[in-house]
Amino acid sequence: MGQKNRYGLSRDIPxxxxxxxxxxxxxxxxxxxxxxxxxxxxxxxxxxxxSHDPRGITLLCxxxxxxxxxxxxxxxxxxxCNKNPICLTNGFSFFPLDLGTxxxxxxxxxxxxxxxxxxxxxxxxPLLEIEAPEESGTPFRISAVFQNxxxxxxxxxxxxxxxxxxxxxxxxxxxxxxxxxxxxxxxxLEINIxxxxxxxxxxxxxxxxxxxxxxxxxxLEVYYPDGSRWFTARNALFCGNSHGIVFGD
Length: 249
Hints:
By secondary structure, the protein is mainly beta. The protein has two domains: 15-91, no CATH class; 97-247, no CATH class. Helix content is 13%, strand content 42%. Strands 4, 5, 11, 12, 13, 14, 15, 16, 17 and 18 form a ten-stranded mixed β-sheet that branches. The protein has a seven-stranded mixed β-sheet with strand order 3-10-9-8-7-6-19. The longest helix is centred in the first third of the chain and has 11 residues, at 15-25. It starts with 14 loop residues before the first helix and ends with a strand.
């Protein structure tokens, strides 16, 4: 970072410009859809760029970026993919999660869930669950559905594969941390992945069929559809039960 080209342009792209690029590309590599990416100047190349024009910058994952730099992915192909990002076609960007082969720990606010196959269930539907390995020595499997305060799906985990929905206002992935926002400084979901066996949901503000789950780094609150509070949990341990939190009929 900080390197400048012959026109004095730094590689540091302003955050609002990055956000515009992420949204336009569907929050993933425009060629393969992988959710870990790099910002790539293609029109013109960075060496010839005089500004960070978002129309000439796209998202490529590390593999596709290496193919481009090695001459195995042409600029014409990059332009075609930039016009038709695969994330917009599929509806989501993705990457695989690795929960490891030891019993996973799920942290929700300051509350820990261990050996709870279904961590959150609403109206009979598992919203966050951990399944045992299919075979000995293979990873545990996590699946989840995340919605925002409008009840709109913002992300999903399908058998250890993260899907970030492309209709979000912004999805930012930085190392092990995922943040989904519906506006500037307005976070719907914040997740920290501590491989190999810990998933931390640091913040969530979610509605599901009227019920609200609001979790911060300090506590978890669950509200009835009429807006009254059902319970608040702080520093609780949910361990060894088939279900953690169950609401609905």
